[in-house]
Amino acid sequence: MFVSLILTTKVNYAQAKTNSVTQGTFKTIFEMLRDVPGLEVKAINNKNGGSVIVRGTSSLTNQKPPLFVVDGVVYGGDITNINPQDVDGISILKDAASASAYGAQGAAGVILITTKKGSAGINNAVVTNHNESAYAYFIEHKIKLKVIGLNNETIITGVVQKQQDSSLFFIKKRKELLVPINTIKKVEMVIE
Questions:
Q1: What domains can you pick out in the chain, each with its CATH number?
Q2: Is it the case that residue 21 has pLDDT exceeding 50?
């Protein structure tokens, strides 16, 4: 597979769109920009990665770098941090087109980069109802609990024997103790 670029030029406008890019085809954005008409690209194998000048009437006297806009947002970061494999298309605005769209920021030209969009997932999450009580696990595993009431005082420390309607049953000194759930502020597990 190889890279094919569709190039269209209009007055003050150039566009390149990658149809099929194989992994590893372009190592940096600067390598990708070399194939776009209307740009003067210098790729350097150092930390900076290179430089870009948008050719046009303003670049005859002004050799400033262009404004980069990624997915509609002005990009202030290092352009080499964008993975070329994530790029869907590149458009170049220059001269009057760039100045009218982005004002003084776009005086040296604008490079519009659109990235590939993710696709919707095939598998959707499945939600099931859970009808058991929050206390079912503690009852089943016979976990010792410290039950604290609404007044922040301990109601009981022990193992829940069963839940019936809106009450918990504990056994304390061989007697059943009933604790209404609406009187419980919190429950803590007791680790022994």
A1: 5-115 (2.170.130.10), 136-189 (2.30.30.100)
A2: no
